Automatic annotation (TrEMBL), chains A, B:
Residues 11-98 form the MRM3-like substrate binding domain. Keywords: Methyltransferase, Transferase. This is TrmH family RNA methyltransferase. It comes from Methylophilus glucosoxydans. The keyword Amino-acid biosynthesis does not apply. Belongs to the class IV-like SAM-binding methyltransferase superfamily. RNA methyltransferase TrmH family.
Length: 264, 264
């Protein structure tokens, strides 16, 4: 491996890493992104193998990070001054190691009986959280509309905790096409509709979830077979009760898995 | 109403508002907090009546904020320069109005058949999200351990979207005492345990949820009747699949409501 100590912000590799940290366009153009923290890098390594580059801050690596670096001795490593390292990290309290990796190409399953369409979720933490829940529920394909934030941004990766590595993920899809092409039940999670619990979810099913502020677009609501809702305890009493998009998605996806006999 | 235009950071009322924005101790001492945004202020007004003070930025109120201000003409109003207003707001993109309000005293129900103990959730957004889900599920009492972040901080209020106003909430509780005093089933949501779906949840039930990093403390795991888990699709295949605390709580609380016949 090569080991480099970079101290200048004008270093071309550092400038390229900054672009990757900040710009979705650059990530898409180069099909690469940055992972922050031992957990994410280990998860990536487990699924796809070695990262292209490890990035560590001067004097601040903890035991976990050190163990990871020792395990990946074949990987090129870049040592940065603390402040320069912090400019790449998605959150202030960093775990002492980052990695440059290739964004894997998604392989969609030939036959899919559990799919998720995500419409226009703009907050990276929210999107990450939804992807994490979808991976845990065993969703086989996640389709993201153009209006969604970049699923491979450092913040979305942090929220997903590795979900992006195991959940086949298609970005910038035409959701109408995906819905029309799905062989099975198509359901949109809305604020008003038939009770989720009255749906038979053992056959192949595709859920559409959307931005909680705007709701699911009229076009997608019209395209699905059924609009469903999660009944709330005090619906109507006060205007306060509602679920955020990530919580609603968790309830719907795991209701599906419950009906299919997971854990019984 | 009194209308004041404050432009000095040395103004004692402004200094007091800054303390409330930043310090949990000050909020507890004075039993008051700041609400940000039309939605939260309207929700508070609906449940508890008028706020003590409205705070608006120079020249930046939008139509919604203006309508709210016109509706609350009896409330004292403070106009602040944009930068001073921003110092009080929990997020950068503010919705143009804040309010100073009393923190309501919690009234616990005489008989509780749906309770939630929250152990050591430190992220305010996460805590807010869990409280929001609990309110939507119809939880009748939420008990927070000392290790939880302040449920009345501006960020937790933002995450809760008004849940704090309708969900009876006790902070800094002795969770062991709460569990021992509960008449019904007590369950801890853990990573390993009996399947959630095999539990009968129609009788009175208390759930314990904890910090996903540390898990639920051994003391609380020992104190409850049963440790339960939400079965994941690929458990064991890879170490990646897991749920965040807010998603796990949503699934458990709504499984309880499903068994009780909500929405069927």
């Amino acid at each position: 491996m090569a080991f480099k100590h970079i101290t200048s912000r004008d270093n071309p590799v550092f400038k390229q890493l900054r672009k990757l940290a900040d710009q979705s366009r650059e990530r898409k153009k180069t099909a690469s992104t940055l992972l922050e923290g031992v957990h994410l890098i280990e998860a990536y390594h487990q699924v796809y193998g070695e990262p292209r580059l490890l990035i560590i801050p001067e004097g601040h690596s903890n035991d976990e990070a050190t163990a990871l670096i020792q395990q990946l001795t074949d990987v090129d490593t870049m040592l940065l001054p603390t402040l320069m390292f912090a400019e790449l990290a998605p959150v202030a309290s960093s775990s002492g190691v980052m990695a440059l990796v290739d964004i894997p190409a998604a392989t969609l399953p030939a036959h899919c009986d559990f799919a998720l369409v995500i419409e226009d979720i703009q907050d990276p933490g929210n999107l990450g959280s939804i992807l994490r829940t979808a991976a845990a529920a065993g969703v086989q394909a996640a389709y993201l509309t153009k209006g969604c934030t970049d699923a491979w941004s450092p913040k979305a990766l942090r929220g997903g905790q590795g979900a992006q590595f195991i959940l086949p993920l298609m970005e910038s899809v035409d959701a109408l096409e995906v819905i029309a092409g799905f062989s099975g039940k198509t359901l949109a999670l809305t604020m008003q509709g038939a009770s989720l619990y009255q749906q038979g979810l053992q056959e192949p099913v595709l859920f559409v979830v959307g931005n909680e502020g705007a709701g699911i677009s009229a076009a997608l609501q019209a395209a699905v077979e059924t609009c469903v809702t999660i009944p709330m305890a005090h619906q109507g009493t006060l205007a306060l009760e509602s679920l955020n998009a990530a919580a609603a998605t968790a309830i719907a996806l795991f209701e599906c898995q419950r009906q299919r006999g997971l854990g019984t």
